[in-house]
Protein 1
Amino acid sequence: MKRAFAPLLLLTLLLTSCGSQAGPEPVSATEPVTGTVFAMDTVMDFTIYGEETLLAAAESRIHALEAKLSVTEESSEIYAINHNGSGHVSADTADLLDQALALCGQTGGALDLSIYPVVRAWGFTTGDYGVPETEELAELLAHVDYTKIDFDRKQSAVTLPPDMEIDLGSVAKGYTGDQILSLLREADVTSALLNLGGNVQALGSKPDGSPWRIGVQNPLGDGYIGVLEVTDQAVITSGGYERYFVEDGETYWHIIDPATGAPTHSGLISVTIIGGSGLMCDGLSTALFVMGLEDAAQFWRETGNFEAVFVTEDGQITITEGLTDRFSLADESPFDEVAVLYQE
Ligand code: ADP
Ligand code: MG
């Protein structure tokens, strides 16, 4: 399956084309406007075939969402709910919560918005990394159960049981990407590429009509393992390499199995989900990472509205059937074989 491919269109390459000494560039179908925003603890890059003003519009939308969703900002809606045990939410947060809770249910709790105190105990939100005491974990885990989040949609009110705290971090970037894409669509943009800290979301195709080419990061080192061709889809990866610490020779990463309270040991080291909704892809990349390849394959067969690229720690790439014509191994890829999951 290894084959040559045209040079990768890297988002970073495009960043140099913005602005000009001689005044504003005329907007044309072939010259994108590009920009970078730092938000939600990550770097976000935009390539938009449209008006320059859309960058500012996208940026203010992102900051508005972050102000509502942040788990650490004291003025956010989520912070208020976590600290008061209940609170009202705006339309954005309600919409996100609604979709995210549906994903928690659909994944049988592999995704659980109430895992936050456990994530914090491992130091992933504080930077104070370490393996928590067994008793502390057991106590925290006793309060992890997304089914006990009381979300009153009519009143836009959320109530949590005592000692529960929630975090939308596993899905917030995907939701934000969806919101930016609808802002661009409303402005009649037909071609754009967003990279929200590794979450790539494409609007339409490239201006010449060819698909966007998105690199899938190598979870074992630098560079890419492969390239995906996509049009109008999100490509979202969860990887053990993104945030982790090492203690006594063991690696602990930021994706936690709600069944054990510990970083997942499912055999997977990265999961990339390709689909129409950024929020769904973001949530499923986390959830399928927790499930492991076997359960994730079963989930894909039963659900069927997304495709996936799995990488296991023993060095195997597995792609779902729908990607056979759209995934190719990168020249630099340390892998030389790809297994395919079929619907049966
Ligand atoms: P990233 O934010 O690095 O792109 P993900 O989208 O996979 O990665 O989200 C991981 C974040 O979600 C973690 O930092 C943690 O806060 C939270 N999280 C970890 N495990 C779970 C889980 N099982 N369910 C819900 N959220 C989780
Ligand atoms: Mg995610």
Protein 2
Amino acid sequence: MSDQLEQKPRQFEMRSGPGEVKPDRRAWSPESMRKCQQRGHFSLHSVDHETKRLRVMKFGGSSVGDASCIRRVVEIVERNLSESDIVVVVSAMSGVTNRLIEAAARSEAGDVESAASIFDELYTQHLAAADSLLGSPLERSRIHQQMRDVLQVGKRLCEKSNVAGAVTPEARDVLASLGERLMAPLLAAALIDRGVASEAVEATEVVVTDSCHGAADPQMHPTRERCEQRIRPLLRRHIVPVVTGFIGATPEGTVTTLGRGGSDYSATILGAALDADEVIIWTDVDGLLTADPRIVSAARTIPEISYREAADLAYFGAKVLHPKTLRAVMQHNVPVWVRNTFAPDGQGTKIIPRETAIVEGVMALSVMSEATLITIELGITGGPNVVGRALAALTAARSDVLLSSQTSSENNLWFIVPSALAHRAMEVVRREFTADATLEEREGISQEPNVAIITLVGGNIASISGVTQRALDALRGVNVPAKAAVHTSSGYNISFILQKKDMKAALTTLHDEFQLGQAGIRNMMA
Ligand code: ADP
Ligand code: ASP
Ligand code: MG
């Protein structure tokens, strides 16, 4: 090792955002740098970095669920480093974000002690992983301290929220972000332990977003600049940045989150900002499948699919991709892969910019099962522009409308929202129309919980005659009544609204009907 490095160990900093996580003053030691050099993962001299491909690899919660999973992730990164530079984006360990949100709920309800017990559990869980992964006692105690600091932020926020009687959207985002903040330094340390030069990077330093807490959108121009300042120099030095997924920060530095499951979106945001050659979403299934394999056992991995089709599948519920994932790369033509961390030699799914469909037809099915149908009946005295008003009010309140439809007279409007947002959506709509003289006080606005939306996705299927009828007939054949069939303007989807209890029967029936389990078939005929 050069004297220069011996004398001047690098002072890397895990810069703290407004979440007040204390800085990590040394992400890797001279000892670990020596290891990296011995293994050939690190060079003092700039080599062919400029010509090397760049991949952004995102590892989801299930891929980092415990120490043995994290070891697989380290192996995947290590194996791929000879071919490309890699930026890692990582989620919280599976289940951790749910626990953090639970802690927020408990403290809001006045139960600070039981909220605190969640942080203690999370400490034990992460400690076990760190102790199993890290050989050096020094590194272990450094990571332990860092974990305590991160969790202390959570405890303090819960105490404050308890006193105030509410968790603010800002505090909720900081709390929700802590799982990723525990994970990124741990994964970086595990890489270093294997001799891969690495550094944890807080996404608050690089992903600039608007201030919509819980569903923030990126501002790509400043994000690009920050990536050049913070990530590119690491790549030039052959250091693997491990970025916290799911998180961003406003230009002023307030922590935001991109929405549940948002690490996929983080990966494509960084892929676009860094002009990556590809983005790989590593998860716990073989790729993007023709249906959720947890529900349809005959589901098959799709080898190649277009951005548009994959975006529709994600939008209509395929959890494997956050609904906005492809938005970030659409203008940049960066291919996105979905691959299995637990079967890394499998081919996976390649999501490509251009349309694949020479033959158009049904490609796959998605389902959203936690949905509520809200209906506004205005009778013949309905006021002007009811639809526009309702949707504008819901949009302003960020109450995601998954689907909506109206009668031609505008006297009847229905829309579907995620059940978790139904209460808020009802309030928003009632507020909007209560003062309306044409609407008898709150009457005419009703909700029906427990509905499911099943969506057929494929190139131009909405304009292929007979597809909708064929699906409806198949559903009728198994006694599943569909309340409605609708398609959006993309023409790539047809959705059926049904009761949640019929979801599984409907999915398996439609999967069979369109022969989606059979390779090479795109079933278009009626
Ligand atoms: P991660 O922890 O890697 O982010 P997620 O749980 O968010 O993983 O997403 C992976 C899960 O998505 C799979 O285990 C699978 O059950 C579910 N899923 C739903 N629809 C699909 C689909 N069409 N293809 C693949 N997986 C799907
Ligand atoms: N950890 C976050 C969540 O559970 C983000 C993600 O998993 O992508 O929603
Ligand atoms: Mg996910």
